[in-house]
Automatic annotation (TrEMBL):
Transferase as UniProt keyword: no
Source domain of life: Bacteria
Naturally occurring in which organism (per UniProt): Rosistilla ulvae
Alphabetized GO MF terms: DNA binding
Location of the Type I restriction modification DNA specificity domain: 308-406
Record keywords, A-Z: DNA-binding, Restriction system
The name this protein goes by in its record: EcoKI restriction-modification system protein HsdS
Family (UniProt): Belongs to the type-I restriction system S methylase family.
Biological processes annotated in GO: DNA restriction-modification system
Length: 454
């Protein structure tokens, strides 16, 4: 869909805005606000009349540019402390502290709840001036964030960041007439909702692909590739029936080496020649060297002192939110174990790929899950892992299953990559549409008229 432009433009004199409609004003962001007041953390909830929901940065819905539906945190804030800090529908919230390299501070969302709340001390409440349309301004701040206008106001670039709100609000922004703010807001509400629907469809597709991928892995390593093979009870709850000619074994009998990582945090070095494998560096059957942190030779030798990590060794995450993933090592003399990782070396009776896929199956995952129930930080004991019950097909059949999974899962990877690329393009389209509308590159006033007649 293409949209018309305005009839007359003029140079705004502002780099991120370029030319804007001739009748629009250009002014500082601070003109749009009556106040910008830091939030308050208060004290622990007490169950009395001073308990109130507290919006944290974690409650920002960065896609919808609003506060999440549920605000889980309740704090105790006295009436005097709430003065001028209580949030009402239509306030904007400015992220003051937090952030990181991939998500710098300075994001703005709309408080769209009817119930009163406060915001944490990492967030500032912005009360808009008369004639300023809240939804327009959340989109305007989003457009500014997308071009990194906030960067100049961030006082440090690593660790916990702090935004100088006075400096940020001194940046210049477009001020359309109030009726056009409403038209732009209505247009973007509708059009971004359409894009969000398409993104949701693609995300649902990736979820279905992940579920199908897991089902294919689990079926192949417990039932094999022959649908007509006679089955027998394995005697193991998580394995169920297995082909009659297969055996059942334990992980410790399938390996020649089982190595736990050194229980200390690696000292990373951006100029190091070696790569430390962390739980975030692998997924089911996939290793991602391109995102791994580096270590120097001294740290590398410290971390492989128990055993070098060799090509076709299996690395396995056993702690944290990403426990239970396994992948094959792709080269000798390059990798070492980071924290929360284990290393296995298949013995002569097992194909390394088959063993790796088995470790990624839900049949094995459920065996480790017994150690993590109710744990704030999931952690699977080494003893539990060593005694995982696994199937043991003939070696030739293990290789056939591994070949099949490599090909079949490659198809899933391609489909997932297509879906992820579609999501990326849709999100780029969303960002571009918001920017075009709030900076006046497209004229959406006719859209509002069409909506009124519909």
């Amino acid at each position: 869909m293409s949209f018309p432009a305005y009839d007359e433009y003029e140079d705004s004199g502002v780099e991120w805005l370029g030319e804007v409609p001739e009748h629009w004003d250009i002014d500082r962001f601070k003109r749009s606000t009556v106040s910008c007041r830091n939030g308050i953390w208060g004290s622990e909830a007490k169950g009395d009349e001073n308990d109130i929901p507290c919006v944290r940065v974690a409650d920002f819905d960065r896609e919808q540019l609003s506060v999440c539906d549920d605000i889980p945190t309740v704090r105790n804030v006295t009436e005097s402390e709430r003065s001028e800090r209580t949030l009402s529908n239509g306030n904007l919230l400015l992220e003051k502290s937090g952030g990181g390299d991939l998500q710098p501070v300075g994001f703005v969302v709309l408080y769209n709840h009817d119930e009163p709340a406060v915001c944490s001390n990492f967030v500032a409440k912005m009360e808009l001036a008369e004639g300023m349309v809240p939804s327009y301004w959340r989109y305007c701040h989003a457009a500014a964030y997308s071009v990194r206008l906030n960067y100049r106001s961030i006082k440090q670039t690593s660790g916990i960041q702090n935004l100088d709100q006075s400096q940020y609000l001194d940046e210049r922004a477009p001020f359309p007439p109030e009726d056009e703010q409403k038209a732009i807001s209505s247009f973007l509400d509708v059009e971004t909702s359409k894009i969000d629907g398409l993104v949701s469809e693609q995300r649902r597709l990736t979820q279905l692909l992940a579920e199908k991928r897991q089902a294919v892995i689990s079926h192949a390593v417990t039932k094999g590739l022959n649908p007509n093979a006679p089955l027998k009870p394995s005697g193991i709850q998580w394995l169920g029936d297995v082909p009659q000619h297969w055996e059942v074994s334990r992980l410790k009998h399938a390996t020649s080496r089982i190595v736990d990582c050194p229980h200390d945090t690696p000292t990373y070095n951006d100029d190091g020649d070696f790569l430390a494998i962390r739980t975030s560096d692998l997924d089911d059957g996939k290793l991602f060297p391109e995102i791994m942190k580096r270590v120097d030779e001294y740290e590398y030798h410290h971390r492989i002192r128990r055993e070098p990590v060799l090509q076709n060794d299996i690395v396995y995450s056993r702690e944290g939110g990403r426990w239970g993933h396994a992948a094959l090592v792709t080269a000798n003399d390059r990798f070492c174990l980071g924290q929360r990782m284990m290393q296995f070396r298949a013995n002569a009776k097992f194909d390394a790929r088959f063993l790796m896929w088995h470790l990624n199956s839900k049949n094995v995952y459920r065996q480790g899950d017994v150690d993590t129930v109710g744990a704030a930080s999931p952690h699977v004991n080494v003893g539990t892992i060593c005694n995982y019950r696994i199937t043991k097909p003939p070696t030739s059949e293990q290789q056939e299953i591994s070949d099949y999974l490599g090909e079949r899962l490659g198809e899933f990877d391609s489909l997932e990559a297509e879906a992820e690329r579609a999501i990326e393009l849709l999100q780029e389209r969303r960002t571009a549409l918001i920017s075009a509308a709030v900076t006046g590159k497209i004229d959406v006033r006719g859209f509002a008229s069409e909506e009124a007649m519909a």
